[in-house]
């Protein structure tokens, strides 16, 4: 079908290039029918922020940690690891398709706990991926190709904006289960259980392991137990997205509790991990994808198929970030330093939550802002409506996503008062 | 019953299996002529001196952090990379109708380009557009386009085994007969695996037919600088097509010419009719990138960008590239001389006529098996050897091995 024969395309060309009266194949482009893509809702916020000239502007969009001066934070353990690596003068030969072996091992251990039976029996396959996004995409592609049971992936409502297009591009279909309760700004436990109990067997259910994005609302342990029971009853395939291990409570093991509990309960899960936030390695693209299999034999078959999926996307993953992560995880004093620094980042966020609520009270707000403190991790679902968000952006140069999500990491003791005033102004 | 009980064991990727087998071999004279990575005359990987220098600068620069790159990548990398392919004085760049998408190596650039074409080329979501790849070609080309959703991937005549050269007649015939709007994946230089490139006159003939038949040009440029040792010479075909006003894609890899294999540095250069089309194209590229890897890795792009954008470093880099290309050229000369001196049956001119990292020796699968099993010289079943695996220390052994393979095995 030639591009120029489509009537839809011709009218499109007419709108885009009014001067193209007569379509001449010699002079027209292949791409006349390509529509302008909308800006990415999350990353687009940063772009708009950059264009703003207001000195008081705040970027509460993308979830990248900032220190109390609002600056990007390169962890000391990362700098130390980089120095160690530089001294080794390593070569730059291709990594295996599945990534750096030492990295995948350390990555799986971090998530599951070093003593996990899954690791000792070798029944997991863990591959290095292009951070969390790359991990989710490999997982989605794998499901699309090999999960005959269902094409449906159930996401919590709401979920990270990019989950939907990732699974869709991989050929899966998206459905949802209730999760966030706007009336309490908390977890809709009853609603979640009701919805999950109706999910058709063998469907895929995606769970945020900790620090739910965008709401910051996590189930309590007792609630996780009930979720696990009902997921088991419904025979659902569990896909955990863990992008914030360490960032939620400040404790690595605590944040991985749900993942480990589910495995203990017999769920053979899929797991995506990211080191973007907890190691501050955002741009180095460090992540892992794990499939917990029935046994080691199955894990070998699954591994071989993951490689077949990976090779035609990017052949093999990048070394730099994985090397840094591995060095940190496997060098005792660096690992300790890292745990301290993660704890420090989580604590600063918790402090900002407290200060924001205090600031709102001080501004005279009569609303209940307890959820700001109860929510956990990098994000806070303020409960602001789109119109209020728009005002906050237009009048106060505070940038956030339309759903009312703010990245706590973008708040500092220097601007938390300004933010409180702004939020109060648009909500009173 | 496991959900994955029916997942079949996939065959290993051939080129990596070869290296794995090589590693396990304990024979003292074993040689790996498989995967395409440069080796020094001591058969060691070579981190380019300019890369070492720039990496040190990066590690010592405390003003640098690890923040996310933009979705399309590091801007100064993208523009410098496209400039390297199209030339400093490229009219297309002056017209502001050239854009880059930083990608994970050449593979990543090909995949993003393929995903874009499947969504937006020749209609919307047209998975039946024929994709033509050379016979033979890099084995991953098929996988990239197939996984991007294309259903009809076809070979075009390329290698003439009988004359050990380009089957120009077959190639031109395929171009004439291809359905309009078919996509052709062209190797910009140093064809992988044959090392056989069209001459400038042959490229002109190819371009003429492609323009007339409205075929889409998708260049794979993984060896710029590596083929002749000269960046501009190796980019001649790309620049010719651009001067002929084609809208085209170029998947660039900096794995080989920067020796940055494991940092995954690539760039998809898009040459569009005008800036307006380019803008819309790039906006859709962003959407594809966002669901694949969100944004690309920063380290390798920083190294390449710093190098390309600084005149002294750029000159140093060109010198490093020439070092690699020259060693390969020397090994080609040596191998041909030694085979001739041994009186190995057949003509061996193709060894020096072919260009780039690889040589299609002409050895058949049985002879290849002999080479691997009996002589512990590892090469691809196609007879492809990586010239970089040859050194002054092992070339006699290898020439002897080839001689025996040709004389003992039919």
From TrEMBL, chain A:
Q: Which InterPro entries match?
A: Aminotransferase_I/II_large, Asp_trans, NHTrfase_class1_PyrdxlP-BS, PyrdxlP-dep_Trfase, PyrdxlP-dep_Trfase_major, PyrdxlP-dep_Trfase_small
Q: Which GO terms describe its biological process?
A: L-aspartate catabolic process
Task: Provide an example Pfam family for this protein.
Answer: Aminotran_1_2
Aminotransferase class I/classII large domain spans which residues? 56-423
Q: Which reaction does it catalyse?
A: L-aspartate + 2-oxoglutarate = oxaloacetate + L-glutamate
| Cofactors | pyridoxal 5'-phosphate
Quote the protein name from its UniProt record.
Aspartate aminotransferase
Q: Which organism is it from?
A: Gouania willdenowi
Lineage at the top is: Eukaryota, Metazoa, Chordata, Craniata, Vertebrata
TrEMBL record, chain B:
Q: Single GO molecular-function term?
A: L-aspartate:2-oxoglutarate aminotransferase activity
UniProt gene name: LOC114468116
The record, for Gene3D superfamilies, names: Aspartate Aminotransferase, domain 1, Type I PLP-dependent aspartate aminotransferase-like (Major domain)
> Which regions span the lipid bilayer?
none
Q: Which CDD domains match?
A: AAT_like
Signal peptide positions are none
> Top-down, what is the taxonomic lineage of the species of origin?
Eukaryota, Metazoa, Chordata, Craniata, Vertebrata
Q: What reaction gets catalysed by this protein?
A: 3-sulfino-L-alanine + 2-oxoglutarate = 3-sulfinopyruvate + L-glutamate; (2S)-2-aminobutanoate + 2-oxoglutarate = 2-oxobutanoate + L-glutamate; L-aspartate + 2-oxoglutarate = oxaloacetate + L-glutamate; L-cysteine + 2-oxoglutarate = 2-oxo-3-sulfanylpropanoate + L-glutamate
Q: What else is known?
A: In eukaryotes there are cytoplasmic, mitochondrial and chloroplastic isozymes.
Tell me the keywords, alphabetical order.
Amino-acid biosynthesis, Aminotransferase, Cytoplasm, Pyridoxal phosphate, Transferase
Which protein are we looking at?
Aspartate aminotransferase
Q: What is its EC number?
A: 2.6.1.1
GO annotation, cellular component aspect? cytosol
Q: Which Pfam families match?
A: Aminotran_1_2
- The segment(s) forming the Aminotransferase class I/classII large domain are 29-402
Matches recorded under InterPro entries: Aminotransferase_I/II_large, Asp_trans, NHTrfase_class1_PyrdxlP-BS, PyrdxlP-dep_Trfase, PyrdxlP-dep_Trfase_major, PyrdxlP-dep_Trfase_small
Compartments where found: Cytoplasm
How does the record describe its quaternary structure?
Answer: Homodimer.
Q: What is its main location?
A: cytoplasm
Biological process (GO) annotations held by this record are:
aspartate biosynthetic process
Instruction: Write down the required cofactor(s).
Output: pyridoxal 5'-phosphate
Family affiliation: Belongs to the class-I pyridoxal-phosphate-dependent aminotransferase family.
Q: Which superkingdom is the protein from?
A: Eukaryota
